[in-house]
Write a structure and sequence with these properties.
The complex is a heterodimer of chains A (about 575) and B (about 100). Chain A is built from 16 helices and ten strands. Chain A is an alpha/beta fold. Chain A has an eight-stranded mixed β-sheet, with helices on both faces. A two-stranded antiparallel sheet of chain A has the order 9-10. Chain B is mainly alpha-helical. Chain B has one domain. Chain B contains two helices and no strands. The longest helix of chain B is centred in the C-terminal third of the chain and has 46 residues. Chains A and B meet through helix 1, helix 2, helix 4 and helix 12 of A and helix 1 and helix 2 of B.
Chain lengths: ~575, ~100
């Protein structure tokens, strides 16, 4: 269990950050600012070139325009250099100091617990002796008890001193983080003082619940802040989703009308098409075209505000928003399973490619974003049941997020399909297995090659944990079967959530895990509706699969099977 | 040195200076690409990392645009100078006025 500081509740966790990298980047921004300044000087000189001809006059005018425009980039580069270096310096004197205390606090905590136990035992012994023992024994037992209490008190003081230092350093880091964000967001701001103050508070809030409370308490400032910083308000977890949807749609429309090209343009087109086609269209409740290497977004289908059950779909490797068509189909199909359902498709992270998939970097970055998003859903819609349905590496990411906290972030059901493996972090697994109210479900098609490969090729076994065999996990079928009304349910013929199977490896017949009509998707619907899968594992209609071989590849570091 | 020669040299030296600085900018700008500024996700917070990436991506693109615009100014000056130089070459056989 993760310890928390006694006075301020700071978790005893390592604060992530690399001051060397931050300083290097700060230097890089500084070099860009410097070279831009020299460029500005040289272009400024052009404005002084003699001549009255049309060409040279036009060149002078162009030069003047460039000089004017360069000012903004120089200021931005200097700002980034300064903010990052100030944060790096503060991180070094605060976060790194806090990190350095973690082992000491854990050790001191153990020492204190042990001493406290011994003091309690000594006290009980003294009490017992005082009733029946000889005078010398009583005196000796009392002395021992007093000594043990003194040792325990000393250990408690040592621990308290360490916690005090930790809280001081942690709070200093927290302040530095908030200051860096406020400095970035506030540069060039034209907001009124009241809006600026609220905006700074929103950025410094300790979580989505605090963001929501601040937002709801200041309705008169909403329009100004949203207009000044739509890129932040549209993605800030805790802001109500109708507000986010409105500002994100406006930003997307502006971007779409600018006709971006390349992969970026394709992703913008895909989102715009999703929002303007189909009935009813989804809401764009997160949208960040530049924060990551790929466009990140979350689209909600159904009436999120009125939903009693909110599902969040998390895609895996090589996914991006251009796949929103088939993911949107899954969302709509899931909503049609019963009343009160709304489903979010969360493309909120840089999904890994084949080379990145063995590592945990993408999962760690994605988990931080998903964690915040799920806390936001819980803050804004606390009464709704929440299910996370994650495919492939998305389940690795989701497990890391949901398992980051002992209460599972308010998630009620976690469903992993074709998982590339859960993280091997014992704290994460312990949280997942022991969280109150969290039910876990998993399926692995016997024709799914890539999920098995993913589990066995993760660097250092980082995500080599087989979900299907975790304590408390309910495994469900995806190899074909029959529904309650006797309808045939197709098997999942490969790794894909929708189309593609195991490509380029051979695949079996059937549909992806999240295609309506598959046994996998039928079971997901039933789990969301009833809490139980709708078919039996290996029941009637199960077709098995190529990978359903006993003792297959015993030499693998992880047995990728459910048995 | 005639006024025209002075003008010619002013054009070419200005163009060279701008082009050199523009190239320097492009080289330095090549460093600000990537997604790991070292900020990470401390206490599971991703906002600063994402904001930093968003800002550096936008800066990188804007700097490319500016260096392109500056190079275009340099090219304009070179065009003016080269037109004069072409005429002089045709007239005198010399490559410079």
């Amino acid at each position: 269990m993760t310890l928390s500081s006694p006075n301020r509740g700071f978790p005893l966790e390592r604060l992530e950050g690399n001051t060397g990298s931050m300083s290097w980047w700060s230097g890089a921004f500084g070099r860009v600012a410097g070279s831009l300044d020299e460029l500005r000087t040289s272009v400024q000189a052009v404005t002084d070139v003699d001549g009255v001809g049309a060409a040279v006059t036009a060149a002078r005018a162009d030069a003047q325009d460039v000089v004017g425009a360069l000012a903004a980039e120089i200021a931005e580069a200097e700002l980034l250099a300064g903010v990052l270096q100030r944060y790096a310096d503060a991180f070094s004197t605060s976060a790194e100091q806090a990190n350095g205390l973690i082992d000491d606090i854990e050790s001191a905590h153990e020492t204190w617990q042990s001493a406290a136990d011994e003091a309690e035992q000594a006290g009980l012994l003294a009490l017992w002796t005082s009733r029946s023992g000889e005078a010398d024994d009583v005196r000796r037992a009392n002395d021992d008890a007093q000594d043990a209490v003194a040792v325990s008190d000393a250990a408690a003081r040592d621990l308290a001193d360490l916690w005090e230092q930790y809280e001081t350093h942690y709070a200093a880091w927290d302040t530095a983080y908030d200051a860096a964000l406020a400095e970035l967001a506030g540069a060039g701001s034209t907001m009124t003082a009241a809006s600026r103050s609220l905006f700074d508070e929103l950025l410094a809030a300790d979580g989505p619940a605090e963001v929501l409370a601040l937002w709801l308490a200041n309705p008169e400032l909403h329009e100004e802040i949203a207009a000044a910083h739509p890129e932040i308000i549209g993605n800030l977890d805790g802001i109500p989703y109708d507000v986010r949807a409105r500002v994100n749609r406006e930003r997307l429309e502006d971007l779409y009308n600018s006709q971006p090209t390349g992969e970026h343009g394709e992703q913008i087109d895909a989102l715009w098409n999703a929002l303007t086609q189909g009935a009813p269209p989804p809401d764009l409740i997160s949208f960040d075209p530049d924060g990551s290497d790929q466009v990140t977004a979350a689209l909600s289908y159904g009436d999120l505000a009125a939903a009693t059950d909110i599902n969040v779909l998390v895609p895996g490797m090589n996914s991006n928003v251009t796949g929103i068509g088939e993911w949107g189909d899954s969302a709509r199909a899931l909503n049609s399973a019963g009343p009160g359902l709304a489903t979010v498709v969360w493309f909120g992270y840089d999904s890994p490619n084949e080379l990145e998939e063995p590592g945990m970097d993408r999962a760690e970055d994605g988990a931080a974003a998903l964690r915040s998003f799920l806390l936001g859903v819980d803050a804004v819609h606390p009464d709704a049941e929440k299910a996370v349905i994650a495919h492939s590496y998305g389940s690795t990411t989701a497990a890391l997020a949901i398992g980051s906290q002992a209460d599972a972030l308010g998630v009620d059901q976690f469903i992993a399909v074709g998982s590339a493996g859960f993280p091997s972090d014992p704290q994460v697994l312990s949280n997942l297995e022991n969280a109150d109210g969290l039910q876990m479900y998993a399926t692995l098609s016997e024709d799914d090659a890539w999920a098995r490969i993913g589990r066995d090729t993760s660097f250092g076994g980082g995500h080599g944990t087989v979900p299907e065999t975790l304590p408390g996990m309910t495994e469900f079928g995806s190899d074909g079967g029959y529904g309650a009304d006797g309808e045939h349910l197709t098997p999942t013929g490969g790794h894909s959530a929708h189309q593609g199977g195991n490509g380029p490896l051979p695949s079996g017949d059937g549909d992806g895990y999240l295609v309506e009509g598959s046994e996998s998707f039928y079971n997901i619907q039933q789990i969301v509706l009833t809490g139980e899968p709708g078919t039996e594992m290996d029941g009637e209609g199960s077709e098995g699969g190529f990978w359903d071989l006993p003792d297959w590849l015993d030499w693998l570091p992880v047995n990728p099977y459910r048995t | 040195m005639s006024d025209v020669e002075i003008f010619y040299h002013a054009l070419t030296s200005a163009a060279d200076a701008v082009q050199t600085r523009s190239t320097d900018v492009v080289i330095d700008n090549a460093d600000i690409q990537g997604d790991d500024t070292g900020v990470g996700n401390p206490a599971h917070r991703a906002t600063l990392r994402l904001e930093m990436h968003r800002r550096l991506s936008a800066l990188h693109a804007a700097v490319l645009d500016r260096s392109g615009e500056a190079s275009a100014v340099a090219a304009s000056l070179s065009d003016i100078a080269s037109r004069y130089g072409d005429l002089d070459r045709e007239l005198t056989g010399r490559s410079e006025p």
